Amino acid sequence: MPAVTVESTVTLPRLGEPDPVNGVQRPVRSVTTAPSGFEGEGFPVHRAFAGVALRDLDPFVHMDQMGEVDYAPGEPKGTPWHPHRGFETVTYMIDGMIRHQDSNGGGGLITDGGTQWMTAGSGILHIETPPEHLVLSGGVFHGIQLWVNLPSANKWNPPRYQGIEGREATLLSTPDGGALVRVIAGEVGGRRGPGSTFTPITLIHATLSPGARMVLPWRSDFNALVYALSGRGSVGAEGRPLHAAQLALFGPGDALTVTAAEHGDSRSGAFDVLVLGGRPIGEPVAHYGPFVMNTQDELMQAVEDFRSGRMGTVPATSLPHTAPREKPPPRPE
């Protein structure tokens, strides 16, 4: 799991420990296991948020762990052209690469540790597909796609695209140097990541060495989630066990704890986790396929706008799979 790595964490800025007197450790409310499935043209995913209520995820809506899979030649897969409206998609490539293109002119190659942040807003078409040379050679594919909701006031904003190279992530370490902390968006311990978001969130990828402990200060007005990408360890001051493809939901407080097992079960022995949270929007959510709105009427309008071509058109010079292979989304009941 390369993402962005360093030879030694000793030279990195250190996160300060939260105030042990005035700080309140967030308790673990639940641990759920992500079921497996398939997305796009058939690549394997774990549905990270399955079984968790939307009110507890707010402002997040959906998250897939894509892979980790080692494709043989000819096997790599992507998605066909498809629409989105009303939210932001965040694609974080941990290992491997994928190309993105959208109907608003955004796009590029997302590779080891890079992030694509696409604000769908009022509506956009896009495609994510492996480069031709990767299809021919095969290779490892591992990443995350996260959907971040937009407040009703921003759902009709013009679409926009951010490409964040892996080297642009803010790199930190814990006081004892036992963890590499990559801040992709938001802020932790006074250090900000490069991602620019409409909805206030924090997104972190941390790699903990065996036995390492990470205590993060966390905004009390944000929710808090930890998803295990690989390895095993525990979460919370109470030491609730957590292993790969499991999600921990935390209760209120202003600090959270993640600890790696002394003897990990991943290839490297490390415990890799995604830590995320955001300020809840607190609005009704109407979610249907690739659209996230506030009402059923808005969903019906989104379907009609897509069918009539009002969400954009596939560029004349486009990536492979230029025509959608899936049926258009039906009208919501």
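The above is record 1. Record 2 follows with the same two-line structure.
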Amino acid sequence: MLETALLSDLNDRSREVFRRVVEAYLATGEPVGSRTLTREMSEKLSAATIRNVMQDLELLGLLDHPHISAGRMPTQLGLRLFVDGLMEAGPVSSSDREMIEETLGDDNRDTGVMLDRVSTALSALTRGASLVLMPKQEAPVRHIEFVSLAPDRSLVVLVFADGRVENRVFTPPPGHTASSMREAANFLNAVAEGRTLAELRRSVAHEIEASRQKLDSVAAQLVSSGLAQWEGESSDPRLIVRGRANLLAHELADLDRIRTLFDDLERKRDIAEFLELAEQGEGVRIFIGSENKLFSLSGSSLVVSPYMNADRKIVGAVGVIGPTRLNYGRIVPIVDYTAQLVGRLISGRKG
């Protein structure tokens, strides 16, 4: 990789100057001058010597400066090299661990409520925007009922084997009656036992065809309409986003980029790509700037980690998004620790 080659080409002095520039920039968000580093270097160097090293690092594409008289700041390439080769991620602090564990402490809490609280806690801890991808709900369906609300609006009540109940409003086919709704519910309850919504969706077309003598056309349309609604709104993963105000606080001078980010989030109906980012390997992944394939906002960084169920299958992810000058050394272990705890809770494992 280019970053690995660049790092191996740097001598000890260049590495230290580069590392201290990046660490100071991540702490302050400001370009770092040579005089600042003269007080921090392990060997005594003049400001002129440090400036020469900075110029060499700039020629390599690792540092940049906003204008002629300013100090240096890391480029996207420089941040990637730092994160991959020089960053020292410490353990999760006791106070951070305590806050996370308090959020996840109730094993009986509804998954959606628990993950919403996880997202809120991550945002508070990291002072960024948090993203939590909920797992697909795969419990078998226990009972289905249709309720007419108006000629063009109906309610489907869905009871799952794990005790979860979902109420969804949908548009029924024209001409439906109370009788056709009862017939559709009876039909679905007869074939739904032991099946998840996804399995029921796949088999319903075949079942309708086989039972066409028993179902009138309106009831058949009602079945299809109801299932389409459930498949689209209940079975897909759900993205929880918290902490928008934190991003605005970081980047008050560039509100347009922040608006672009959240427009992307709100338009993202198919969010499977977020899970795909995490599925490419266990552990934390870091996307800096334009590496962030999910969003068009190039000035952001995404730290994301998947969590698994009891079968070691990736079912969701937790992450933090913020400006590229995130405190990676602190946020990476927080995201990793949170993902591991969520996975244990989702799968029922202890420890």
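Residues 231-236 have pLDDT under 50 and may be disordered.
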